[in-house]
Amino acid sequence: MKNIYLILSILLLINIAEAQTPPGIEWQIAIGGTSVEYAKKVLHTSDGGYIVAGESGSNTYADKTEPNIGGLDFWLVRLNSAGETLWDRTIGGTSGDYVRGLVATADGGYVIGGYSESDISGHKTEASRGGYDFWVVKVDADGYVLWDKTIGGNLDDYMYAMDITPDGGFILAGSSKSDISGEKTEPNMGVTDVWVVRLDSVGNILWDKTIGGDDLDTFYDINAISDTHFIGGGKSASNSSTTKSEDNILRLDGLRSDDFWVVDFNDPFSVNWDKTIGGTFHDKIGSIVPDFVNNALILGGDSSSEPGAYKTTPHYGYFDDYWVVKWNFADSVIEWQVGFGGDDDDELEKVIRTFENNFLLCGYSNSTIAGNKTVATYGYQDYWLIKTDSIGNEIWQYALGSGFNDLLYDCIQTSDGGYIIAGAGSAGISGVKTAAGPGSLDYWIIKLYPDEACPLQTWYADA
C-alpha cells in the first residue's frame, strides 16, 4: 500500500511539473521589407486565420507587395491558420502613421486606429489638424480602404486605444494637448489630458470628452462594456479635479510621478467612479481585463515604484517591472497584486484571461536572470511571457528571443488552447528565432502549441 501511495505521489509531482512547463513553438514567421516593421495588433479571422496590423517603413520587397507612402505606414497582413501570408496592404500618408488599435466589424471588415502626422496624401483624405491627430481607417474583408477619419485639435493628439461597441460604433481614447479646435470641443486642462471620442459605425463623432487634472493624464486601454458603459485606464500625474477624485501619490522626494488611473464612465460622458493606484514612483496601466462577475478589474502595466502607498510588491530592476493589480471596485479594495521583474527593464504590454480563468502576461524584457525572472535573455530584449493562476501565482514563464532586439506588443489565445504572439523581431536566425526576416526589424509572429491546462474551445472570431 505504501508503494502505491509513493507511486501516486511521484506521478502527481510529475504532473505538476509538466503543468508548469510552457508550450513549445508550433510555427513562427518573420515577414517584412527592407526597413522596419512592428506588429502591434493581432486578431482571429472567421476562417481560422489571423489579421495583423502594425507599421512598416519598407518599400516593395520580399513580403511587402506595396510601396511605402511616407515615414511609417499602417501595414495590414492577412494570414491563414498556418501563418502563410494571403495578402498585405500598405495604408498611410506621406508622414508618420502609427497603429494602436484593430477591431473586426460585423460586415467582415476591420477598423484600424492610431495616430498620424500626415496631411492629405495617400489614403489620408483629410488635412492634419495640428501635429499628430487620431486617425481611424475602415477596410473591407480584403483590406481595401472604405473610409478614413482624421480627428484632432490644434496640437498633438495621440490615439492609444480603441474598442468596438455592441451597436457597431467605436470608442477611442488617448491623450491630447489641444485646446478647443478642430474636433476637440473642450479646453486643455493640464500638460496632457485624456481625450475620449465616441464614433458611430461610419465614423461620425457622437461626442468627445476631455478629462484629467493639472498635469499629465493618458489612457492606454479602453473597454466597451456595453453601448453606454466604458472603462478606460492609463496613467495620471494630476491632483484631484472635476473629473479626477484623488490626488497624485507623491514620490519620496515630494515630486509628482505617474500612477495607475482607471475611470468607469457612461455614455453620454458621466463618471461612475475613478481610482488612483500607485507607489512612490512611476506606474502605468497598459491593459485592463474586466471581471464583472466578481466586481473587479485586472489592471496590468509597468511600475518602477518601490513598495509604498498601494504597492506592496518589490521593485526588482533599475527601470520598470510588470505590475498586475486586481481591483475590487464594489468594495474599493485591492484583492491581490503581483510584480515580475529582473535586473533591468521589463515592459508589460498585454494581459489576457485564458480559457481556464488564468492569466497570460505578455511583454518584453532586457533583464537577465535576477529578481523573479528565471529565464535567460537571448539578446538585448526578448519577448517575455508569464502565465499565472487566477490570483496571480506564477505557473510558468517563457523568454522568446533572438540574439538582438525583440519587442512583443500583442497576444491572443487560439481555439486549441495555444497562443499567437505578435511583435517585432530582429533579422537573422539566432536564439529561438528560426525564421529569417528581410529587414532590420520584421513582424515576428509565433504560434505556441496548446497549453495543456487549457480546455479546447469552440472556434470563434473577434467581432
Notable features of this structure?
mainly beta; 463 residues; disordered C terminus
Account of the 3D structure:
With 463 residues, the protein is mainly beta. Helix content is 4%, strand content 46%. The model is unreliable at 1-19 and 457-463 (pLDDT under 50). The protein is globular and about 50 Å long. The chain is built from one helix and 28 strands. A hairpin with a 5-residue loop joins β22 and β23 (359-365). The termini are far apart. The chain has a four-stranded antiparallel beta sheet with strand order 1-28-27-26, with no helix packed on it.
- How many extended strands? 28
The largest sheet is:
4 strands, antiparallel
Strand order of the largest sheet: 1-28-27-26
What structural class is derived from the secondary structure elements? Answer: mainly beta
Binned, the helix content reads under 10%
Please provide the ordered H/E string of secondary-structure elements: HEEEEEEEEEEEEEEEEEEEEEEEEEEEE
Low-pLDDT ranges: 1-19, 457-463
